[in-house]
């Protein structure tokens, strides 16, 4: 039995809030153009639809609502990873799908979604970079590369994500790929922002791209001596 669109909005609203929310706040956010009485009635009707679901989706406690913790939600997975200590072990043999997905609730234009979307983007970026470093330390360069590439896709101008890729190419014994990645980022940031890469990333490949002295022409020297 699919969740109807109105109930989807309520469930998404509760999922995006780490703490229980009051019924009044939920009604006000989800039905902003309605009177308080009408918004409360809409909330009650929507809750009734969710309560009929085969599995528990919403929990109530007094005047507050929360998404049921038995529900599997990508946002919660990302949030949990973001709060783990940096030296924590890798989450498993695969990258959690919520980190590799696209934008949060694409196509939704509600104000409360827009506010959470940028938060989720920043959390994803930091978590992807953190996981990339964990995988690299664990010796899994494939997943380290996969998570770093995902971070670049989320924000193509993020230097720390490009720097992670350069470091991974060097660790994998591919200096040409490291230089190619650096040149790609340098061209992008110059074109889009008019800036040069920082010394933190430039220094990684400086010894590989430093200009070498041009070979001296023997014939030219011979002519100059005559």
UniProtKB/TrEMBL annotation:
Domain Bacterial transcriptional activator: 73-209
Annotated InterPro entries: AfsR-DnrI-RedD_regulator, BTAD, TPR-like_helical_dom_sf
Pfam families linked: BTAD
Protein's name in the database: Transcriptional regulator, SARP family
